[in-house]
């Protein structure tokens, strides 16, 4: 294992890999920092450009883009008061207040250093944990994978994408994804399903077309429909000159918050479907409560560097940890990891229990690429953040979104050179808008689609093992443990939703009485 790590590390210092690292960090930094162009969208747009690249170069480029786009949403949160990514929303609470006080440079540096610290620690955790977790995954049979998929879909269902979202709607979204995955050839019998006589649909709906259609096109359509052609994407207010940069003492004072955020984010990241937004808000809420009990001079929520550190470490720590279930079990931790799975499959590598036996060099190249990208990110982020204000004021929205639309359509056609795929991506884009407005979850649909093949195969094989009965899951210790986790998770989700609804109704009742 150590020899593989060393060889993978040495390979990364080849000029092609270094260029891919720098390019990935730079592109991801740009895409993640612009509101409306999320890191997930940017990652999806990058995949078609890797089709003709060597596998390891493509992997390094995509993982570097993933890393940088996950971080750079904090720049617009701090300077614009508008999160570039959903995960950066918690950073805005303190970061934008600091910026308006003339301490924006301190806030930006704190976001960079706290993000880099948490990222580096969880990347090391990923490096150490991926092999043991893959060995554990080899102990899993069809019944275990069937329950694990159910746990993944439930955990995704517990995260609402919109304010209208609910547990039931998110479960339905996951089931829609499973249904879309059923289009094409049946996994076990080999007979066509829901193809309507079209040979183009025998291989099903391609993952990348679904990702671009559901995640990218709705954003583009909505931005264009909002008449963004009137002017710039956003306008940075002139709030005066920033004070001096972050001091080492200020960083050390925030370090306990960063380390707590790393632990919280790592735990959340291992859970499929939780995502960086949960890590950011959970750690931010913990630091907010601690700040009240400590009676800080500047409390979290009022323009505190600790608040920026808590939010950034919480969301960045998820990034490395959520690749553990991706590599070990083939189950994506969030939408970005789902796109990475699709990219790996396109290049002939399937993440899952066998990946450490068949392609361990690819895994270590990807993980070590993340670590090096993290180090490259620091100087690029410091330089880019100074340029960001000027860049964001010069970008014309009437140009950027049509370009994104053309890239999406070209990428869809490139997959199978089929006009049907162009029709599918447009239909999915329009469907995505309806899904958003109705409060359903596009992420749950995507993850349901990715898990569809594994779900069907595991379900069929479990029935074969149990001779037509699913009760075989009760005869296996690992599946029993997983089944218990599913029940606990479902009860916890329902209970937490009920408590939240009750507290909100109590607040409304109190407001009416007053």
Would you mind describing this structure in some detail?
The protein has one domain (2-233, 248-475). Helices cover 74% and strands 1% of the residues. The protein is built from 20 helices and two strands. It has a two-stranded antiparallel ribbon.
Give a quick summary of the entry.
The chain contains 20 helices and 2 strands. The protein has 514 residues and is an all-alpha fold.
Please supply descriptive tags for the structure shown above.
two-stranded antiparallel ribbon, 2 strands, 514 residues, 20 helices, globular, 74% helix
Draw up the topology in text.
Layout (H helix, E strand, L loop, with lengths): L1 H10 L3 H19 L5 H8 L8 H26 L8 H12 L3 H35 L3 H16 L9 H15 L2 E2 L6 E2 L13 H19 L22 H23 L4 H20 L10 H17 L1 H7 L5 H12 L8 H4 L1 H35 L2 H20 L2 H20 L3 H24 L11 H37 L1
Antiparallel strand pairs: 1-2
Helix pairs in contact: 1-16, 2-3, 2-4, 2-16, 3-4, 3-9, 3-14, 4-5, 4-6, 4-12, 4-14, 4-16, 5-6, 5-12, 6-10, 6-12, 6-13, 6-16, 7-8, 7-19, 7-20, 8-19, 9-17, 9-18, 9-19, 10-11, 10-12, 11-12, 14-19, 17-18
